[in-house]
Amino acid sequence: MTSEAADSAEAIGAVAPAADPGFLQRHGGTIEYVLIPGAALAGALVVFGIFVMLFGKNPLDLYFYMYYGAFGTWFSWQNTLTRAAPLILTALCTALPAQLGMVIIGGEGALLIGALSATSAALLLQGMPPFVVQSAMVIAGVIGGGLWIMLAGALRQYRGVNETISSLLLVYIALAILNHLVEGMMRDPASLNKPSTREIGAANMIGSIPGTDVHWGLVFGLIAAVAAYILIYHTVFGFAARVAGGNIRAAKIVGLGVSKLILTICFLAGGAAGLAGMVEVAAVQGRTNANLAAGYGFTGILVAFLARQNPLAIIPVAILLGGISASGGLLQRRLGLPDASVLVLQGIIFVFVLASDALYGRIGFLKGKS
Amino acid sequence: MADGSIGLWTVPLAVLGGAIRVSTPFLFVSLGECITERSGRINLGLEGTLVMGAMSAYGISYLTGSPWLGVLAAGITGALLGALHAGICSLPRVNDVAVGIALMLFGTGLAFYLGKPLIEPTAPRLPAIDFGWWSDIPQLRAALRVNVLFLIGVLLAPILYWAFRTTRWGLLIRTAGESSDAARAMGHSVLLIRLRATMVGGFLAGIGGSFLSLFYPGSWNEGLSSGQGITAVALVIFARWDPLLCLWASLAFGGAAALGPALQSVGVTSGYHLFNAAPYILTLAIMIITCSPKRTLTGAPAELSITR
To answer: CB under 8 Å to A58, separation ≥6 — which residues?
Structure first.
C-alpha cells in the first residue's frame, strides 16, 4: 500500500509463474532487481511515516500528499519531470565510474563547473544565432564538467588518491570558484542582493517541449541515459570497462588500457553532470549564481545507487526521486513539514537501499529447487 | 592599544588563533575516524555526524541551559549514528563507503529537519579560558582565548597514541584492522570490535560538532559545516592513521581555514572565497603528494577498503 513499486513487483511475481513455471528461476535475477529496491523503498516510506507521526502528523495524509504532489496532476507530473532531468544526468556521474568499481560522489561539483563553462560560452558568443550559442553551451558544459571529474579519475590512476574523497573535495573547490567568479570577474553589476553573472539572453534559452512546461533538458537526460546504456552493455569499450571493474588484474593481463578507460569514463561521467549544469542555466536560471548548488548532484548519488548503477534504470528512479522532491512544497504547505523533510526521506531511502544489498540471492522462492 | 597598530601582524596572529579555534572540530573528527579506520572500517558519514552533533548540542544546551550537557548529547548522538553505520555494515555484502555516503546525507537532512526551530534562539555557549592575560595586544589575547574542548582534544591525541600501542583495547582494534582472521582466531568478534570502534569514533565526531555550534562560530544554522567532516576523514589518511600526526595536521588545517577571514580583516577581500577553500585545496594537494599508485600507504590498516 505504501509503495507502488513493491506492489507492481509482487504483481509480476504473482502472475508470471502460472503462465510459465520456469519463469521465476530464469528471471529470478531481474525480478530481484525490482523487488528488493521496491521493498527497500516501501520500508523507507513506512519508517518516514512513523517519523512524521512522532511530530503529530498523519502518515496517511503524508502518503497522499506525496503522491498528489509528485504524480497526482498534470502540473505535478511536469514539476516532477523537470526535476528528474538533472537527476538523470548527475546520477550518470556516479553510475558510469561505478562500472569500473570507482565511487565518484562529486557530481555536484561537475554540475557547477559545467554551468559556469556553459554560461561563459554563452556570454562570449552574444549576438550569434541561438542554435550556435546553445550548441557551444552544451559543448562547454560537457567539457567543463568532464575535465573536472577526469581530474579525480587521473588522481586515482596516476597518484593513487582515493576518488571518493577527492571528488567530494572538488565539490567544495568548485563552489568556491563559482562564488569567486560570480562575485568578482563575471558579476553582473545589476545583481545586487544575489550576486550573479549576466543573463545568457532569452533567445538562447532552450525552452520547453511543445505542449508542456517541461524543458528540453529531460530529452537531453533521456538521450544521455540510453547512450550510456548502449555504451556500457553493447560496445566493446563498455565490455572492457566492465572487465576492468570486475578484475583489474585480468584487464591488465588481457592488455586493456586501464588508464584510458578510467579517464574516458570519468570524462563522460563528469560531462553528464556538466550537461545538467548547462541545462539548469539554459532552461531554468538563465544565469549562473549560487542557486545552482541545489543538491541535484547529491541526490544523483542516491538515484544511481537505487538504480543499482544501471543507466536505463536511472530513468524511472530519477522520476521517482524527482517526484519526492516535487512533493516537498506541498508537504510544507499542507502538513507544515520543514523543507528538509525531503532530505530526511532521501537519507532513509539510501540507508534502506544499501541495507537491502544483503538480500540478493537469499530470497527463497526465487532460487528454485536445488 | 589602537587597532591596526600591529598592521600586517594581524594576519599571522589570526591564523594562529584560527589554528587553535578552527582546528578543534578537525581534531575530534580525525581522532574519531582514526579509531574507526584502525579497526578496519571507514566511516565517511562523519560529515553527517558532525552536523547532527552541532544541532543536538545546540538544542540540548538551549533546553537545559547547560552547554556541557549539550556536548554530552552531541557525543551520544554521534555514537548512535556510529552504531547505525556499524550495524548496516555488519550485514553481508554491504559496502562501508556507500553506507557512509548515505549517512552523510541522512545526518545532514535530519539535522536540518530537527534544527529548524533552533535557528532563532540563542543557546548558552561553552566558556573559554583566557591564556593571553599577560599580553596587551588585543589580537593576541583574542587568539589565545582557548576552549576547554581544544585542550581535551590535544590531550586525547597522545593518549590515543599510547593506547593503540600498549593497551589491550588498542591491540584488539589494530588486530581487527590488520587481519580479521587473526582477531577471529583469537576468539574475538570482529564485528563487535568494529561496532565499538565506530561508536567511539562517532562519539568524538559528535563532540567536534558541538564545538561548532557552542563555541566557534557558536550558533546553529544550515551552513555551519561545509565539508569539515570529510576533510577530517581525508586528513586521517595523510596523517598515516597516527593520532599525533592527526593533531599536527588538524592545527595546519585550522590555520589554513582561518586564512580567508584573517585576510579579509586586513582588507584583502578579492580572493575571499578562494581562500576559504584553502583547507580543501590543501587536503587535495597533500593527498596528491603523499599518495602513490605503486604501494599502499605505510601505516594503512590492511583491512581498510579505501586504500586497497
So the answer is: none
Separation of alpha carbons A70 and B122, rounded Å: 37
Per-residue pLDDT of chain B (308 residues; tens, 9 = 90+): 344 456 677 788 878 887 888 899 999 999 999 999 999 999 999 999 999 999 999 999 999 999 999 999 999 999 999 999 999 999 988 888 889 989 999 999 999 999 999 988 888 988 888 887 787 777 777 777 888 999 999 999 999 999 999 999 999 999 999 999 999 999 999 999 999 999 999 999 999 999 999 998 888 988 888 788 888 888 898 788 999 999 999 998 888 888 887 887 777 777 888 888 888 998 899 889 888 777 667 778 888 876 54
Contacts of B234 in chain A (CB under 8 A): 162, 165, 169
Please answer whether residues A222 and A212 qualify as being in contact, where contact means their C-beta atoms are separated by less than 8 angstroms: no
Q: CB of B59 within 8 A of CB of B234?
A: no
Show the cell assigned to A313: 534504470
Q: How close does chain A come to B25, measured CA to CA in Å?
A: 17
Q: Do the chains contact at A179 and B273, CB–CB below 8 Å?
A: yes
The CB density around residue B187, as the number of other CB atoms within 10 Å, is 6
**Which residue type, as a one-letter code, is found at position B91?**
L
**CB pairs A-B closer than 8 Å:** 146
The minimal CB distance from A164 to the residues B97, B277, B292 is found for: B97
Question: Any CB–CB contact under 8 A between B237 and chain A?
Answer: yes
For B:242-271, CB contacts with A below 8 A are 270-271
B288 and A161 in contact by Cβ < 8 A? yes
What CA–CA distance (Å, rounded) separates B180 from B198?
16
B99: contact with A, CB 8 A cutoff: yes
Which stretch of DSSP H or E encloses residue B50?
A: helix B46-64
Return the residue of A nearest to B81 by Cα: A351
Do residues A266 and A87 lie in contact, with contact meaning Cβ atoms separated by under 8 Å?
Answer: no
pTM: 0.89
Q: How far apart are CA A195 and CA A267, in angstroms?
A: 30
CA contacts within 13 A on the Cβ side of A127: 1
